[in-house]
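Wed. Picked up where I left off yesterday with Ankyrin repeat domain-containing protein. The coffee machine is broken again, so keeping this brief.
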Amino acid sequence: MTDDLDAETLAFAHRMFDLARAGSTEELAGQLDAGLPVNLTNDKGDTLLILAAYHSHPETVVALLSRGADHSRANDRGQTALAAAVFRSSTEAVRALLASGANPAHGDPSALETAEFFELTEMAELLHAG
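Structure written out below (tokens, as returned):
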């Protein structure tokens, strides 16, 4: 896929992933509102949502979800945004993902398996309550 993209387009895409990692919600939301695909995926299968969840940016997670980000997408390793948020113990992001319908049993490892493996009791309780 990257063979089809010019250097400027690749640089722009990398910048968008960096915005998700940094939690630059306003700038990323502006790009999404201007037409950036909300489910943009990098070469590892990470979506903007997975990156925002992994880097503990609940506001960015909410902004992406409100614009139609697919919470069920998994990266090339089978990880979902919910599992990433659980791993980081990001309560607000977990709540937002659950409220949008994210399945705690989806993915490999799933969010439930992640909470169990890392002994994240509060996260496991949140997933079971959610």
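Quick read: Residues 2-129 form a domain with the Serine Threonine Protein Phosphatase 5, Tetratricopeptide repeat fold (CATH 1.25.40.20).
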